[in-house]
Structure formats: C-alpha cells, structure tokens
Amino acid sequence: MQSLTFTRPDDWHLHLRDGAALAAVLPDTARRFARAIVMPNLKPPVTTVASAAAYRRRILAALPAGLSFEPLMTLYLTDETSPEEIAAASRSGFVHGVKLYPAGATTNSAAGVTDLGKCRMALARMEALGLPLLVHGEATDPAVDIFDREAVFIERVAIPLLKDFPALRLVFEHITTDHAVQFVMAAGENVAATITAHHLLLNRNAIFQGGIRPHLYCLPVLKREAHRLALVAAATSGNPKFFLGTDSAPHAKSAKESGCGCAGCYTAHAGIELYAQVFDAAAALDRLEGFASHYGADFYRLARNSGKITLVRESWVPPATVPFLGADPLVPLPAGESIAWRLQP
Ligand code: DOR
Ligand code: ZN
Question: How far apart are CA 145 and CA 178, in angstroms?
Fold first, then answer.
C-alpha cells in the first residue's frame, strides 16, 4: 500500500500548555487531528468549568487561520472537587472528562489527588452522569519500583475503584504494560485505554542506548520489550477499547537536557505518521482507521469526523528541533531519524 486515505483522526490525550508554548505546538496537532482531549495540568491546574472555558478560548484564539480544530476540555480532579462542579462540567457541553493525577505522579501533579477516598462524592456524580474519569495509572508510593507503578496502581487503586463505582466510565491513559492491557480487556465496556506512539515504538533500552537520552524520558516510563509487544497487539487488534492518545508533552530543550530533566515526549509533529509506521510494521494498516478515528469518538459518545486525511509512503526526517520558547526550542521524537509515512497537505 502506497497511500492511505481515512477518516480524520482525533487525539484522545494531548498536552497543549499555554501562552507562547501553546501557540508554538497547536498547529502540529490541528493539521492532523480534528479534535483532542486537552490535559488540564497547567500551572495552576484547570480545576473548574470556568477555567476550562477560559483555556478553551485561549486555544481557539491561538489557532492559525485556515486550520480547524476542536479542543475537548478536561478538569483536573483534586481532593476538593465538588459534585456540583462535576455536574456543571457534564452540563457544559465542552468538558468531556475529569483527569486523575495521583499527587506527585508526574509533571504538574502536585495539586492532584492525595487519597481517592476524598473524591467519593465527585466520583459518584461522574458515575451517575456518565462523565469519564481519565486516569494517570501509576502508584505514587516511593517504595514501589518505577517499572512496577502501573501494575501496582491496578491492584491498589483501579480494581477497588471499579468495585466501588462499577459503572464509572474510565479511560486508562497511556498504558504501558501487558498488565494494563489485560485489566482493560477484562473490564466492562465502560473501561477503555489510550496508547501513545512512543510506547508502541520504543522499549526501555532506547532510553540508555549509547548514553542517556533525556528526550525519551516520559511517564509512565518506557517498559521492556514484552510489554511493548502487548501494546502493539492491543492497538492493532481491532478491539474498540484501545484508541489513539499521543500524550505529546512539549518541554523546552533546556528543561529536558538538565540534571533533573522533565518527563514528556513531543510527538505532535508526526502525531498520526508514527502510528502508521507501527501499524504498517504489524501488517495492520487496515486497522489504523478504527484505532485513530473511530473508537475514541465512540467511547466519548461523540460523532465520528466526516473529513479525511491522506498519508503517503514517503520517507522524511523530522527537524532536529522545533521552535518553542524564543531561543529555547523543543526536540521532537524521533529527532534525526526517518519516518516512513508522510501526511499529504
Ligand atoms: O511524560 C509525561 N509528561 N507524562 C505525564 O503524565 C505528564 C506529561 C507532561 O505534562 O509533561
Ligand atoms: Zn499526559
């Protein structure tokens, strides 16, 4: 197959940031994706419907003329999120989920949830209203090995959560292990998962290949090859519980190449092309449209897109850096390596 035309995809997990950073990265996403679930981990986080509305307006204002894109907003769950705020979010028409960051789990998660027991009223309202909970599924207990955090989260948090709120609609975000694949497959139709391109393409060896590679550090951290293979099998299986979420997470080069570098991989510049490469390698290009353009919309109870995009089999090399914050660029993944599929303008 030399070219592939299919329904315009959506990105069900994206970090757009704010201000100059937002303006720098938004066109990469809007050229490829019709919509994206926008993460609320700004500083300060987006915890109210009013702040989500204001952030949504800033995103739309940053969109260059000629591009159309719909930001699907989320709220950042805290110990204090009230059931009234959940009800207002559900009514708003533009808030499509509530994000659970266990406090301390990742970038800008300090204001996250310290104990899910404190969120019972909010969770009950979400369950009743069908507003999805989007989870960063990593245990935060510092005694837990970093490579086991997802599995331990499933045991300690996700299983008890679904026991208490069996009808809660839940998206297990950026899954990285076979444990998460099995958990999602065994759960009811109310449970789904997003998978990033970088977790499909790379295993943890890549972080240490020939030296330390800070641009391949993200959270949850890349896992061993057996887990990558389980993710590829899930993504290319045609099971509608698994859909595209890039988790493209821009950080300036200086913040990544540092004594304590930030977590996050930038992939929005090739946000659909990298997945095409994965599906091609798995001889599953015929299943890319379901994963990228159908199943997420179906789960979120939104109409599928009507537009189309075309990818051609044509090798190109992404730039080594992308302009980001003035003199501080960002380094996209995989800088300097070729990508086998190109988006037709
Ligand atoms: O690698 C990550 N980067 N994981 C997250 O959960 C957050 C994200 C970010 O915001 O940079
Ligand atoms: Zn994320």
Answer: 17
Distance 7 CA to ligand 1 centre (A): 28
- Any idea how long the chain is? 345
Q: Which ligand is nearest to the CA of 214?
A: 1
pLDDT by 10s per residue, the chain, length 345: 799 999 999 999 999 999 999 999 999 999 999 999 999 999 999 999 999 999 999 999 999 999 999 999 999 999 999 999 999 999 999 999 999 999 988 888 889 999 999 999 999 999 999 999 999 999 999 999 999 999 999 999 999 999 999 999 999 999 999 999 999 999 999 999 999 999 999 999 999 999 999 999 999 999 999 999 999 999 999 999 999 999 999 999 999 999 999 999 999 999 999 999 999 999 999 999 999 999 999 999 999 999 999 999 999 999 999 999 999 999 999 878 899 999 998
Has residue 191 been placed in a domain? yes
What is the reported pTM? 0.98
Q: State how far the Cα of 175 lies from the Cα of 200, in Å rounded to an integer.
A: 10
Among the listed residues 247, 280, 286, 298, the single catalytic one is 247
47: in domain? yes
189 lies in some domain: yes
Which ligand has the nearest atom to the CA of 106?
A: 1
Phi, psi of 180 (to 5 degrees): -70, -40
Pocket test of ligand 1: the residue of 17, 99, 218, 333 to mutate, having most ligand atoms within 8 Å of its CB, is 218
In angstroms, what is the span from residue 102 Cα to ligand 1's centroid?
13
Paired with 341 in beta bridges are: 313
Is residue 313 helix, strand or coil? strand
Ligand 1 atom closest to 263 (CA)? 1
Active site residue 286: no
318 assigned to some structural domain: no
> For the chain, what is the domain count?
1
